[in-house]
Amino acid sequence: VITNSLGLRGSEPVSEDHSRVLAVGDSTVFGHGVAGEHAFPSILESQLSQSQRVQVQNECPRPTDCTCVPI
Fold it and tell me: Is the full-model pTM beyond 0.90?
């Protein structure tokens, strides 16, 4: 798994000429167990990029870095 300088999965944030979408969630959003290009945020970015300049940033840290707190 490759993470960027922020410790998040995916590429570095792009310049301000792109719209940004933040994908926040758990290991499903992170794409635990799949290649980066098959994670939900990457697929969403591919679809949205067909009509506009957009970056979907995967804002979930590595699943092993998450601490679950029962509520």
Answer: no
